[in-house]
Specification:
CATH superfamily: Cytidine Deaminase, domain 2
Number of strands: 5
CATH class: Alpha Beta
Number of domains: 1
Order of helices and strands: EEHHEHEEH
Helix content: 25-40%
Largest sheet: 5 strands, mixed
Low-confidence stretches: none
Strand order of the largest sheet: 2-1-3-4-5
CATH architecture: 3-Layer(aba) Sandwich
Mean pLDDT: 91
Number of helices: 4
Shape: globular
Structural class: alpha/beta
């Protein structure tokens, strides 16, 4: 699984892949890794105007991290019916009680993303 963060000017400022098993880190999801890299690149945790792009719909933790980082937009490919928190199972990012709600662009290259994920899980199970 992979994620990138794009700056408001279109520059790639954060790249991540799932390192949970490698680092024995329950927070090592691709989105969190990419958001951390982007924050370092910008010198700020506020990723205002940035876009998070990810192969699979973010989980609750990752959706929450994107909201807290103030990303402007979340773009994802495949929907995650088991743990998706950007519309499938939950909808964390559109909760009206939050003070920041990023735009969501869902299902971009969904079939291609699903095929990548199938390959990933086939190798790791």
């Amino acid at each position: 699984m992979g994620a990138v963060v794009i700056s408001p000017t279109g520059e790639l400022i954060g790249v991540g892949h799932n390192i949970r098993e490698l680092d024995h880190d329950p927070t090592g999801h691709a989105e969190v890794v990419a958001l951390r890299g982007a924050a370092v690149a910008l010198g700020s945790w506020r990723l205002t105007g940035c876009t998070l792009v990810v192969t699979l719909e973010p989980c609750t933790m990752c959706a929450g991290a994107a909201v807290l980082a103030r990303v402007e937009r979340i773009v994802f490919g495949a929907f995650d019916e088991k743990a998706g928190a950007v519309g499938s199972l939950w909808d964390v990012v559109r909760d009206r009680r939050l003070n920041h709600r990023p735009e969501v662009v869902a299902g971009v290259l969904a079939d291609e993303s699903a095929a990548l994920l199938d390959g990933f899980f086939a190798q790791h199970r």
